[in-house]
UniProtKB/TrEMBL annotation:
This is DUF2798 domain-containing protein. It comes from Clostridium gallinarum. The lineage of its organism: Bacteria, Bacillati, Bacillota, Clostridia, Eubacteriales. InterPro entries: DUF2798. The chain crosses the membrane at residues 9-26, 46-64, 84-107, 127-146. It comes from the Bacteria. Keywords: Membrane, Transmembrane, Transmembrane helix.
Amino acid sequence: MGQTKGQKFLFTLMMCFGMVLFMTIYNMILNEGFNSNLFSNLLKEFWLGFIVALICDVFIVAKIAKPIAFKIVKPNEDTNPIKLILTISSCMVVGMVLLMSIYGSVLAVGFNMQALRIYPMVVVRNFIMALPLNMIIVSPVVRLMFTKVLKFA
């Protein structure tokens, strides 16, 4: 979303922030339970995950996911925008889950063979949450906020 490079980057920042925030909370609750340290741990762990996710999004996933999405749904004047948005979002979620689950696996158990063993479970667990989170909550909210921000800019 967005017309200029700056607008596209702002949209990416907003999407990445929302997804990483909620996915970090989700994974922290799964790994540690809901406890009194959740907020302080979130403040510590969020930022590195956000930076890693933003780099993965901008330099890897978007460059692969968008061309795949455009092969699935060929954009033209007759293309339903919702169909295009859902296709791009789905492709982005798949790519980001695959990459960020590596990050999460290593963060959970360290850089060792155990991280490889838990990776498939982490992918499934993250995909189950990330796809509906993106489609139902983060993407619509960010799109609404983004259009409001552009009106004031």
